Each structure stands twice: as structure tokens, then as C-alpha cells.
Amino acid sequence: MNTKEKILNAALKLYNEKGFVSVTSRHIADNMGISAGNLHYHFKHTDDIAKELFDRLAVEFDVLIANLKEGTRLSDGSMDSVLDKSFFITYTYRFIFLNFTEIVQRIPSIKKVYIDINSRRQAEFGTIFQHYIENGIFRDDIPPTILPLFVRNIF
Fold first, then answer.
1. Which of 2, 129, 142, 155 has the highest CB neighbour count under 10 A?
2. Secondary structure of the chain in HEC code, one letter for each residue
3. Which residue numbers in the chain have pLDDT < 70?
4. pTM for the whole thing?
């Protein structure tokens, strides 16, 4: 594992343990036993670390959703598997969810990406659930006005 990956792993661990606003680049460097200068060689700003971790979170969900969209049938337990993976990803990057307000205030570019992702995800889930309704996996008597609310709630 290269130094950049080690920095990301150490930061993720510290952010999850102590919270985003409580962790500085010096904390991360000290935790790793490297100099702050070495850390800043790989990430100019501490916020760049959080941005990279947010991007990784988004990619992991992209893969999960892509796999869900590829499946034409749900077998017994497959929806449970998707939910388990979703919860695992959420738990892995829990500092983002727990400290989201502070993160987007400090790193506004994450807010824009989140809004785009949120919109795309809701549309993706709407398509997936519509497919499930058409194939008899979900009930077909869900009113059209309720389905978007259901999608938003699930997402």
C-alpha cells in the first residue's frame, strides 16, 4: 500500500473515531508516524483528504447501484444483500453522514456533487423499483404519487 492510501486509511479511521472537525493533518500524520510535510506532499490541504474519501463513498455506491440495475430478478436474500452492502458502505464512511453539515460548509464542492448524486440516485431507484413492479417483485398497486415518496424515503 502506498503512502497516499495509508493516509486515506488513517484519516478515515480518525474521522470516524473523533469526528471530522476534530482531526487535523497533524493528527493524521502523527497517527501514521510521518511528518506533516510528507502528508501535505500527497494532499495539499486536509480538505482534499475528505474530498477523496467522499468521492470513494460515491464510487462504492455507484458500483452497488450498477450491480442492482444489472440484476433482472431478485432472488431470495438478494435485496437483503444489497441493503447489507449499503449499510456497510455507510458505516465505513460514517463520518461523512455524521458530520455532513460541517463538511459541506467547509468544502462547498462536496455539496454540489452531493446534490447531483442525490438527484441521480432517486431517479435510479425510481427506475429500479418500477422494474420490480413490472416484474411482480414489488406490489403493483402502489399509487403513482406514492412511488416517488417511497423512493425518496428508501434512498
1. 129
2. CCHHHHHHHHHHHHHHHHCHHHCCHHHHHHHHCCCHHHHHHHCCCHHHHHHHHHHHHHHHHHHHHHHHHHCCCCCCCHHHHHHHHHHHHHHHCHHHHHCHHHHHHHCHHHHHHHHHHHHHHHHHHHHHHHHHHHCCCCCCCCCCCCHHHHHHHHC
3. 71-79, 155
4. 0.85
